[in-house]
Amino acid sequence: MSRVSKKSLIASTIIGALALTGSNIAAADALTDLQKAEAKIFKASAKSQSKIDNIYEQTQELIGEYRSVVDEADVLRGYNDHVQRMVDDQKANIASLQEQIDGIDKIKQGVVPLMYKMIDTLEKFVNLDVPMNVDRRKERIEALKEVMGNSDVTTSEQFRLVLEAYEIEANYGTIFDAYQGELDLGDRTITADFVHMGRVALIAQSLDMKHAWVWNNDSRSWDELGEEYLKPVTDTIRMARKQLPMDLTKLPVFAAGAK
Question: How far apart are CA 229 and CA 211, in angstroms?
Fold first, then answer.
């Protein structure tokens, strides 16, 4: 090879090397630009993702709040329905009470005359009945008459007292009792012991236990008993007072329908 040719070859090599170096530099610049662009894109993408995440979180919060509001609305709706049912029931009760109140006057118009009639009937019954505890029973009737004229006592309370008096009178038919009181013999009045077995027999005995009488409801008077009844009467009085154990005894009893 000639000297010229070698020099030309070296020059070509150097130029090629320079050209390659320039090409590498240009490629490196392009790569750098690409990397910067990618970094910028990644940064923008991260920023966008952050916004998306924030929007998602806000959306979830709003959805939660919406569901909470919906649930609360359902609860309130159920409670309002419950309250409405209570209001409707109260209105029905008020209407019923008003109807009862409106009918009270009519009830009083029927009950009040009935009570006066019941008291009058009770008084007649006591006057015709066996006179056991008669003073107390007559006092109870007088008390009923006073109550009927007392405006401070309600009609219901008046009626209760009348019924109670009837119940007490009914119980006299089953009571075995002894008490002390005044015995009216017509020509004189003495203090005596009384004993009665329901309405079957009413007997009185003087406190010295020397005389005894049995009530005759047909003649409305006291019949004196013979001496043979004195001890049985005394024992009966003591049994009624629980001073002796209950036992059989002989007492005079008027047969039903006997004259």
Answer: 9
Alpha helices in the chain (DSSP H): 3-128, 134-148, 155-171, 230-240
Single out the residue of 196, 68, 82, 36 nearest to residue 132, CA to CA: 196
Torsion angle defined by CA atoms of residues 109, 113, 118 and 123, in that order, rounded to the nearest 10 degrees:
150
Q: In the chain, what are the domain boundaries? A: 94-172, 175-259
CA end-to-end span of the chain: 188
- The string of pLDDT tens digits covering residues 207-251 is 999 999 999 999 999 999 999 999 999 999 999 999 999 888 888
Distance CA(85)–CA(32), nearest Å, equals 78
- Phi and psi for 253 in degrees, rounded to 5? -135, 130
Instruction: Say what the pTM is.
Output: 0.57
Cα-based torsion angle of the residue sequence 70, 72, 74, 75 in order, rounded to the nearest 10 degrees: 170
CA atoms within 13 A on the CB side of 161: 18
CA atoms within 13 A on the CB side of 179: 15
